[in-house]
Specification:
disordered N terminus; 4 helices; 29% strand; elongated; 6-stranded mixed sheet; alpha/beta
């Protein structure tokens, strides 16, 4: 059986990302997500690459809408306490758009930004903007589930 480079690339990435999604987050991670004012969540969202079928504005709007859907006020930027970082890398592989989605919580001090270990992102291929935005929203929803559990449901 012959596989294309794209098929092998996507298969390898799915195997790697599926291992990263397993299990309930440990208590130290949930404690790291706690905020003094959990009703406001800072976020950053951007992408790199030349094969994106969505705009940066669409990406930011999608992230903000999921945060709002969790009854939390989204604030662009990252200031000190916990923030959500969404990064999309767009690649063109064999005339197909492949996306690497990294979604992590982090915090920032005066010297640096620290992103937490758990990544809600994944790798996927698509040519449809709606499918890309839905995949991003689903991944952000998973992150927001942990955020709301850490801040409101404990």
């Amino acid at each position: 059986m012959m596989f294309s480079r794209l098929s092998l690339c996507v298969l390898a990435l799915l195997l790697v990302t599926s291992a990263a999604h397993g299990g309930f987050p440990p208590s130290w991670y949930m404690s790291a997500l706690e905020k003094a004012d959990p009703n406001i969540l800072d976020y950053v969202a951007g992408f790199k690459g030349d094969a994106c079928v969505i705009t940066e504005r669409e990406l930011k709007d999608a992230v903000a809408s999921v945060i709002k859907g969790s009854e939390v006020e989204p604030k662009p930027g990252r200031r000190g306490e916990v923030h959500l970082s969404v990064s999309v890398r767009c690649l063109n592989v064999d005339q197909t758009s492949v996306f690497s989605l990294a979604i992590q919580f982090g915090s920032e001090d005066s010297d640096s930004t620290v992103l937490y270990v758990k990544d809600y992102g994944e790798m996927f291929a698509s040519k449809e903007a709606d499918a890309v935005l839905q995949t991003i929203k689903t991944a952000v929803e998973a992150a927001m589930t942990d955020y709301t559990l850490a801040n409101f449901d404990r």
